[in-house]
Design a protein that fits this description.
The chain is mainly alpha-helical. The protein has one domain: Orthogonal Bundle (Cytochrome p450). The protein is built from 16 helices and 12 strands. A hairpin with an 8-residue loop joins strand 1 and strand 2. Helix 9 packs across helix 12. It starts with a helix and ends with a strand. Bound molecules: protoporphyrin IX containing FE. The site of protoporphyrin IX containing FE (HEM) has 24 residues, from helix 12 and helix 16. Keywords: Heme, Iron, Metal-binding, Monooxygenase, Oxidoreductase. This is Cytochrome P450. One of its GO terms (molecular function) is iron ion binding.
Length: 388
């Protein structure tokens, strides 16, 4: 996508798509400065799309889907957004996230024990997908043995969010969300009867007792944490390995100087951003951006993957360089909805790459080429064959 982004940044940095004249517009925002500006704007509403769907005649599957998502903090406006975010914020505070580094390393080692003797693997299936799912399941407090089911639900959700939506995709994702919803309600009931634990489930139950969350909010928050924390981090790992393998000099440098791991992970987040585009809501009050006027009802889509390659901010933006210091990337978003799990994602990324470099010394690309998955919002490999 990067040459296309570059053309838009130069010629039409705030670009509007309309399905028909007079219909509301969808605005794609390509430059770094405009992305920061629009994401901090108060003239946008996240909740509007759900209010609209829930009020109007919509197919049942679409309605059910939208109703569930309307309880997620990422889909809410002030003051509800702050209330929902505060309920689980401490689970993701920098100290708590750092404490998970060792645990992530242990889980990474367990997964690698299974593939080291094989000499080859599809790293997405064997490592990049299960690792963050197992970590986030522990952070939330979900039983480990349930991970294949959780993986299926997470996949159904991302299939819908990442493709041109069809009724079939809505139905599949809606069914997954309904099943996950019922599972979480049962788990909450079970945990209420047991001892308190200090995971996200425990925090959400505390917030329920204080009256800070409804039961729907509690379920929605836990569901969002799994979906938001899984594929994004899997893509950081997959895209990062792929980029290192196609830049052998940088891979060698990282092996020689492990102290560069922190800046290497930031550069991976910039260079192949796991979330390329986010839908950040509907315009509430008219505002101007890059000389264009956005009107109430229009939607706004900042293209984070383009902002992170903006030549106005990054020198030689198409060069992958793990020693970069100009790393003001927007991979985790900006403004009040900035990624809540950013610190955890960084910790997981560093632990995952350290384990891979340590356990797979001869790591190189496999015979078959890596395959990108088609996606509207994320940058994701379908397969990453490697040998070692
Ligand atoms: C929000 C990216 C990992 C939880 C976001 C947003 C982005 C993002 C761009 C803003 C979305 C928007 O404005 O609509 C990423 C990337 C990750 C990652 C690139 C990995 C490399 C995680 C993890 C968690 C997490 C591990 C842990 C559960 C969240 C939550 C929000 C969020 C809860 C919503 C915050 C809010 O609305 O206030 N993430 N994320 N993310 N992320 Fe992440």
């Amino acid at each position: 996508p990067y040459p296309v982004y570059a053309r838009f940044r130069a010629a039409d940095p705030v670009h509007c798509v309309r399905s028909a004249p007079g219909e509301p517009g969808v605005w794609y925002v390509f430059r770094h400065a405009d992305v920061l500006k629009v994401r901090r704007s108060r003239g946008l509403s996240r909740a509007a799309r759900h209010r609209r769907l829930c009020a109007g005649p919509a197919p049942d599957s679409l309605f059910r889907y939208s109703e569930k998502l309307s309880h997620w903090m990422v889909e809410r406006d002030a003051p509800d957004h702050a209330r929902l975010r505060a309920a689980v914020a401490e689970v993701f505070a920098p100290d708590a996230a750092r404490a998970l580094a060792a645990r992530t390393g242990e889980i990474a080692d367990e997964l690698l024990d299974g593939i080291v003797p094989l000499g080859r693997a599809d790293l997405m299936t064997a490592f990049a997908f299960p690792l963050p799912l197992l970590v986030i399941s522990e952070v939330i407090g979900l039983p480990r043995e349930d991970w294949p089911t959780l993986l299926r639900w997470s996949r159904a959700f991302s299939e819908l969010e990442n493709r041109r939506p069809t009724l079939a995709l809505y139905t599949e994702a809606g069914d997954a969300i309904d099943a996950f919803d019922a599972y979480l309600r049962e788990l909450l009931g079970h945990r209420r009867r047991g001892p308190r634990r200090d995971d996200a489930l425990g925090r959400v139950l505390d917030a329920r007792r204080r009256g800070a969350l409804t039961e729907d909010d509690a379920v929605g928050t836990l569901m969002l944490l799994l979906f938001a924390g899984h594929e994004t981090t899997a893509n950081l790992i997959g895209n990062g390995v792929h980029t290192l393998l196609s830049h052998p000099g940088q891979l060698r440098l990282l092996r020689e100087r492990p102290g560069l791991m922190e800046s290497a992970v930031e550069e991976m987040l910039r260079y192949e951003s796991p979330v390329q585009t986010v839908s950040i809501g509907h315009v509430r009050e008219p505002f101007t951006l890059g000389g264009r006027t956005l009107l109430p009802g229009d939607r706004v889509m900042p293209v984070l993957g383009s902002a992170n390659r903006d030549e106005r901010v990054f020198s030689a933006p198409d060069r992958f360089d793990i020693t970069r210091s100009d790393l003001r990337h927007a991979a985790f978003g900006t403004g009040v909805h900035t990624c809540l799990g950013a610190m955890l994602a960084r910790v997981e990324g560093r632990a995952a790459f350290s384990a891979l470099l340590r356990r797979l010394p001869g790591l190189r690309a496999g015979d078959a080429p890596a395959r990108w998955r088609e996606g509207l919002l994320t940058r994701e490999l379908a397969e990453l064959p490697v040998t070692f």
